[in-house]
Design goal:
heterodimer, A: about 150 residues, alpha+beta, Alpha-Beta Plaits, 5 helices, globular, B: about 725 residues, 6-stranded mixed beta sheet
Chain lengths: ~150, ~725
């Protein structure tokens, strides 16, 4: 199973509580540019929420140092001590949920901690679980296929 | 077999104070004399930084100071210099992990420079050094180890049972020097292989530990025989360890700008690569069918450029064999990721027959050089040669060009089984080609003779076997002693210059002008060609000054590149490089300044050639096979093209002429054209008719150092 932050755009009113909670939690300041969840105004009172779906795992495949791994909960995590800050993960993320702040060494992303969901006044955010998918399994399959193992 | 560095016999140790990098420079270089086992450091002066920039520039400067005009490749004072450059090691801009290796070449007698990936260079740089000089000759088999975290350089005795071939040696030493399993990626090994003990085609392998594969990969400083120099010094390996690479390990003046510029190119690659060169899936092997289609893919010793069998080694064949969806960059952050590999490859010949190995590649040059050029269209054969070349430490380009020469000699009857110790060298026999390699590694039989390279072989076959000396000269594809790399240059006069008017020998890293010249006819006049043969060699030299890879410059292009003036220069990417240089060094730069940085080093290298007794006009001439059809059947195979040219360009009606006459007329014309090109290029480069930089030109570009002026004046006044 994969734990992830579920977003419901239809409920969002753009109050920015989630970005404040997130950036306070991880960067000790209220700054939407440092929030793992992003709120995009679409006009006419509509909003679009973006956070990692934990499922596509293109960043896991792309990371040259294997600093990006999948936790037991299915959440994609960045190990800062291994990260070399190349930002390849930022480039391959199809929804730009992998974030970076100029001048900071490491990228950052949503780890489905649920802090924002707890404070969302409109219940637009919730931590949920979903089934594994073909895409989610791919990094493991690729790694298994090339492991030299007993062949050496 | 497991090894632990703690059990190695320590011969000497030298410690140093670690200092953080500032703006891409350490401002000091490391000198190791393996003969006396003395280690020392040298400061980098502001003047050296200004004039030589870094990378290859630093390498050549240090090599010049370390050697004399009489120094040969095997003199103790000859060095192997590994230098990085200020941009090298940043993790954001694709292709930023290159080391430049410089030495007096066993093949040419002049400095060779080779651009190589792998983790060694960046680790050496983060360990505190802008360059490493390896000098002297060891008495015993030696390992040099630089621990960048501890600030120590240690020289060890290589254990007697340590394997020699790279795929085993790199693995053994990576495990021996890593602190634990998690530390494996912090170690990089430079080594050669058994073949390099016996051949001037010997190369250096630079390792990178691939975590997903759980094994070492290698990239090659391939050209010019630096592996033989390493082995002549009895250095078994040079190892660097550095743990803790970060986004700003390079000490950039503006780290956020480095991120921004790098991310821009990452995104461009992710979006455009599948539509352009498919480097992420096929690497440089994407070129195979393109070259075959344009009659440019070397076939049978560059006799032809095309064959109906071409598609059997096309990119899609390799794509199926490569393991895909891996971050196959040779340094962190290279999303162009062209360093593909074939996993679990079962070897069919040689000492490792029956084992499964990783084959690094093939890259285009290898697939062409040991594939189509040998008329080998069996991917397995190409991979087997690729693997053994790498592990024995043999350059696939020189090996391919040399073996194709041998196969043509076989076809011409110059060689037979009595002369090859029983090896059948019929076109396409990959097992015969492999046997040469195995013999070369063993230091026995025909392989040792073959490994001396085509310049030697052409003279030897003429002298010993009575082969026609002119034919031998015509079909031995080398310049200055270095084998030509793998593009057909016959139909592009500019590319003949691109290959042979080079400082180190015919290697296309200075200029690749075939499409511009032959296909698109953008540089029709001698002046146009000379301009291209000034601009591109200077521009491409710059990658070597910075520690950069050339591929992310034009193997990926902005989607709208074609709409800008001079799209061949990929202007937007040039501006990326200018911005990147400034973001790292804090120094302003513009396009002219970029070319000027290169021009200084390029002219210094030319002067270095002159100091060593070369660098004449005659040293810049190609063998005729690189310029036109040598044989009548070669002419007839493209008769329509050559007849048309005779009529339109030469102004002679080919009707009624024998093929022999037509071959002669074409030859005379093309040789004359090349002379005119030499005149135009030398003039544009600010050189004399003999190819010597003039003192005025050196002054203009800021390379008027007294020792440089002394050499050029000596040549101009006839003393050198």
């Amino acid at each position: 199973m994969i734990k992830y932050l579920h977003t419901d755009d239809s409920k969002c009113v753009g109050c920015m509580t989630c970005t404040a909670v997130c950036s306070q939690m991880y960067f000790k300041e209220d700054n939407p540019a440092k929030s793992c969840i992003q709120v995009f105004g679409m006009g006419k009172g509509a909003f679009h929420l973006v956070a990692c779906d934990q499922e596509c795992r293109k960043c896991v495949m792309e990371c040259p140092t294997q600093a990006i791994t999948v936790a037991k909960t299915g959440v994609v995590m960045i190990n800062k001590s291994l990260c070399v800050g190349c930002l390849a993960c930022v480039a391959v993320c199809p929804v730009e949920a992998m974030r970076y702040y100029p001048g900071n060494k490491n990228p950052f992303k949503c780890i489905a901690c649920g802090a924002c969901a707890k404070k969302c006044p409109k219940e637009a955010l919730s931590v949920r679980e979903k089934e594994e998918s073909e895409a989610a399994r791919k990094p493991f399959e690729v790694a298994a296929a090339v492991a030299q193992g007993g062949d050496k | 077999m497991k090894f632990d560095a703690k059990t190695f016999q320590l011969l000497s140790e030298w410690t140093y104070e670690r200092k953080p990098l500032s703006r891409g420079y350490n401002m000091r270089t490391l000198h190791v004399d393996v003969g006396t086992r003395k280690v020392s450091e040298k400061p980098v002066s502001e003047d050296m930084k200004k004039r030589f920039t870094g990378g290859k520039g630093f390498g050549l400067r240090l090599l010049w100071d370390a050697t004399k005009p009489t120094t040969k490749w095997d003199s103790p004072e000859n060095e192997i210099v590994i230098a990085m450059g200020p941009v090298c090691g940043n993790t954001n801009y694709p292709g930023s992990g290159k080391s430049l290796v410089v030495s007096l070449s066993p093949m040419t007698g002049v400095p060779i420079d080779s651009n190589v990936g792998g983790y060694f260079g960046p680790y050496l740089k983060f360990s505190g050094w802008d360059a490493l000089e390896l000098q002297g000759k060891a008495e015993r088999e030696t390992i040099v180890f630089i621990d960048g975290n501890e600030g120590a350089v240690r020289i060890y005795d290589a254990p007697a049972d340590l394997p020699q071939d790279t795929h085993l040696l790199a693995e053994a030493l990576t495990h021996a020097f890593a602190k634990d399993e998690k530390d494996l990626q912090s170690v990089s090994v430079v080594s050669a292989g058994r073949g390099a003990d016996h051949s001037p085609m010997g190369l250096l392998n630079f390792s990178l530990y691939d975590k997903r594969r759980g094994a070492c990969r290698v990239k090659q400083a391939g050209r010019g025989g630096i592996g033989l120099v390493l082995r002549n010094k009895k250095i078994r390996a040079v190892v660097a360890r550095y743990k803790g690479v970060e986004q700003d390990s390079n000490g950039a003046a503006d780290p956020a700008a480095v991120q921004r510029i790098g991310l821009k190119l990452h995104r461009e690659i992710v979006v455009n690569d599948d539509k352009q060169c498919k480097m992420r899936k096929q690497g440089t092997a994407h070129l195979m069918e393109v070259m075959n289609d344009y009659d440019l893919l070397p076939t049978k010793n560059h006799k032809y450029g095309q064959d109906p069998k071409g598609p059997e080694v096309a990119s899609w064949v390799w794509e199926k064999l490569f393991s895909l969806d891996l971050p196959d960059g040779c340094w962190f952050g290279c999303t162009l990721a062209c360093a593909h590999a074939v996993d679990h490859f079962l070897l069919e010949t040689g000492p490792y027959k029956g084992t499964k190995v990783i084959v690094d590649g093939p890259e285009y040059e290898t697939a062409a050089g040991v594939g189509s050029n040998l008329y080998i269209y069996d991917p397995h054969g190409i991979l087997e040669i690729n693997f053994y070349c790498d592990t024995y430490g043999i350059d696939t380009i020189s090996f391919g060009t040399m073996t194709s020469f041998l196969m043509e000699c076989w076809e011409l009857g110059v060689l037979n089984k009595d002369r090859t110790d029983g090896i059948d060298l019929t076109w396409g026999n990959w097992k015969g080609a492999c046997q040469i390699l195995h013999d070369l590694a063993d230091g026995k039989r025909f392989g040792v003779l073959a490994g001396k390279g085509v310049k030697f072989l052409a003279e030897y076959f003429a002298k010993e076997y009575g082969a026609d000396p002119q034919v031998m000269k015509d079909i031995a594809l080398h310049g200055k002693g270095l084998e030509q790399s793998e593009y057909i240059s016959k139909e592009s006069l500019a590319q003949q210059g691109g290959y042979y008017m080079t400082n180190k020998g015919p290697q296309h890293d200075e200029a690749w002008l075939i499409f511009m010249d032959m296909v698109n006819n953008r540089i029709p006049t001698f002046e146009n060609k000379a301009e291209a043969l000034h601009y591109f060699p200077m521009f491409r030299t710059w990658f070597g000054l910075q520690g950069l890879c050339k591929l992310p410059w034009n193997d990926i292009e902005p989607a709208d590149n074609a709409k800008w003036p001079e799209p061949n220069k990929v202007p937007e990417h040039v501006h990326n490089y200018i911005d990147l240089y400034t973001a790292i060094t804090g120094e302003p730069l513009d396009w002219e300044g970029l070319i000027l940085q290169s021009e200084r080093v390029y002219n210094f290298q030319r002067t270095f050639n002159i100091r060593q007794g070369y660098g004449h006009r005659k040293d810049d001439k190609p063998p005729y096979r690189a310029m036109g059809p040598v044989f009548e059947d070669e002419y007839e195979a493209r008769a329509e093209r050559y007849d048309k040219q005779m009529k339109e360009k030469i102004g002679i009606d080919p009707a009624g002429k024998t093929v022999a006459e037509k071959v002669r007329i074409t030859r005379e014309y093309r040789l004359k054209q090349y002379e005119s090109l030499l005149d135009a290029v030398f003039k544009r480069r600010g050189w004399t008719e003999d190819g010597c930089p003039t003192p005025e030109h050196l002054k203009k570009i800021g390379m008027d150092l007294p020792e440089v002026l002394e050499v050029v004046k000596g040549r101009i006044e006839g003393r050198l």
